[in-house]
TrEMBL record:
<feature type="coiled-coil region">
    <location>
        <begin position="25"/>
        <end position="59"/>
    </location>
</feature>
<keyword id="KW-0732">Signal</keyword>
<protein>
    <recommendedName>
        <fullName>DUF881 domain-containing protein</fullName>
    </recommendedName>
</protein>
<keyword id="KW-0175">Coiled coil</keyword>
<feature type="signal peptide">
    <location>
        <begin position="1"/>
        <end position="21"/>
    </location>
</feature>
Amino acid sequence: MVKAFRTIFIVSVLSFTVLVACNNSDSYKKKISALETENEGLKKQIEEFKKTMLREKETASPIPSLSDKKAENIKKTIEENKAITVVDVGEFTLKKAVFAKEVAPPKATGNTIKFENKESIIYLDTIINLKNLLPNSMFVGRIVDVKVKYDGKYNYNSFGLVETFKGANFGFASESVIDPLHTEIVHFVTELPEEASTDGKSIQISVLCNEEEYIYNLR
């Protein structure tokens, strides 16, 4: 009787184990099927993403290189008495560029700031009318600057002088404030070797505004 009970018990346990195993197998199959369906959906999404990226790559505009930007800037030339507008920054007009042994305001008096040339030095005075298009007041020297290239290879910086008191004196551009929509006359003075005024070699004036370069070929 005990042996029969043991046999019945063992058979019952085995049956339960097989049943559980079958149930677990069905559950795993369902999970595997669900994962396979999910994977198929992800594959389709990845393929669509690849196609979208390829279309965007084919239709996207090329990003200009630094060399392209430099070449573009070189094309921005200046003509005398022709205004150049840099939107929301400033408007400038190159009036003239002249050699001088002395730089002084047009209505100079005895107390006027003047610059007399040193030995073997000649001044190149680049005169610019500048209008401030910024919404706030700004130092003149932060809106425009001027550099000069002589003989195609020698580079020179300039210092800026703003006409004050209706042309009776000068103020330094780095310290002179220009109000919004106001216009000032600015002299950018460059010290060049004296022979530059007569030797006929090339002189290129670069006006810098808002990180853009505008070229005026003096000769």
